[in-house]
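Reopening this one. Same input as before:
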Amino acid sequence: MRQHLVDLLDVWQADYQDDWVVAILTHVQGSSYRKPGAMMFFHPLGKTLGMLSGGCLEADLRRHAQRAIQTQQVVQLTYDATDESDTSYQLGCGGIVNIMMLPINSSNQYLGLQKLYFDLNSGKAGEFQIDIAKQDTPSNKVSGKWQIKSKNLQVEKTTFIRSVKGSESVSSDDAQTHHIEGQLIIPITPPIHLGIFGGGLDAQPIAQMAAILGWQVTIFDERTAYARQYDFPSANIMKMPFDGVNDEVYQTLDAAFVMTHNLILDAKALNQLVKFNLGYISLLGPNHRRDRTLNIAQLNINDFSGYFSAPAGLALGGELPSSVGLSMLAQCHGILHNSQLISLDKVMR
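Same output, byte for byte:
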């Protein structure tokens, strides 16, 4: 299930004039499944988009969404999981979360979500500003505003992504969801754009897993028998020499996996990628193959501005394409989100 905001808005946009309600996680005390700024959408006929918990709150939120639709007013909710004797929702996370539910309609200019959706699809990043309104505030008294912070320039986008932990918001010290004068400020970036150079069998599970993560995937391979659309149904396919691809395509990439299994083609891919400020580049193969490929390309590791991983991925074990792909995606995800390899038991303490 894809959870990036642009995927939710893609569905919402098709019927935006219906009586939708957005639920926004505004405050968290202690631990919670999602972080402040997370959103979920409710359609009047019962359809839901996204999630704000591990599944324990969504049914109750749907009930409150109907109330928001009927009254066209803000509904403020607090779920407290600190009292272990309260078995109302079985949250299990031990925190307190505050959620604001708000009708989206023409009277509040759809909270600026249409422009946000268009700009995210154009590769722009920025901040979404939404009023934190009191209970029963009429929906037409609540405003939302989308402000672009980084236009479609790859160097700016990569920097912005590195400063934001999480798929939609939260949280490094430089860019995190925060409150200012009664508003919630939510940093939002477009989906991560992954370029896979080589459309062989081992690229298929990577493209599938990346699509599940909500990433945009482009496959680059000029060879006739590779990178068939049938094998990569959710990816963009570039069937041309690497040096024939427009620079604007490379500028939208946040990460690249080089895995053609051909030394010359891998070297050609690296010669193109080195020109751009990607956050992560991996080269498949052992150390001696990396050295041969870099020698052919007349490059060295220090020529790359971002993180260069070769051999690619983390030492997770396993040798099949799905295991190798998981290790590469896990490392890439951590690098782009400025994360460290820390066990969850330490993070959740």
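So the earlier flakiness isn't reproducible anymore. For the record, The chain has ten helices and 15 strands.
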